[in-house]
Specification:
Helices cover about 45% and strands about 15% of the residues. The longest helix is centred in the N-terminal third of the chain and has 17 residues. It starts with a strand and ends with a helix.
Length: about 130
């Protein structure tokens, strides 16, 4: 990866602030473990930063390339057409920026490991009846 490459992680976006915080946390984790010039998160809709805002933040950091990572499980419409279209629109005024799109998260061998880990964690959580009290 070039020294001046940024990463833009994009999720759908939610009306719930807590849900929007997840991609922010993921971006922070990736930032701590990577050598990207900037790791920025963005939402397709319903929340900020928007894709346009996230793209502009990467450009302002001095990138010459941006890797776009959809924070989605499968190759649905958002990952394969909506996000690329929206990123291309955001990039319209920055033809000097190289853009590449990575695949959505699953299926990936580590996804199975993650699911099993979540299942182990679920055994320690209270059930629905316990949560009401």
């Amino acid at each position: 990866m070039a020294e001046k490459t940024g990463l833009l992680i994009i999720d759908h976006g939610s009306r719930r602030p807590h849900a929007n915080g997840v991609v922010r946390q993921v971006a922070a984790m990736v930032r701590d473990k990577s050598r990207f010039l900037i790791v920025q998160h963005a939402h397709m809709e319903l929340a900020e930063p928007t894709i346009q805002q996230g793209f502009e933040t990467c450009v302002a950091a001095g990138v010459d390339a941006i890797v776009v990572q959809p924070y989605f499980l499968g190759p649905g419409r958002h990952s394969t057409s909506d996000i690329p279209r929206m990123v291309r629109e955001a990039a319209r005024n920055h033809p000097q920026i190289s853009i590449c799109f990575s695949a959505p998260l699953g299926p990936h061998p580590k996804m199975g490991e993650l699911i099993l880990e979540r299942i182990r964690e679920a055994k320690t959580l209270p059930g629905p009846a316990d949560a009401k009290s």
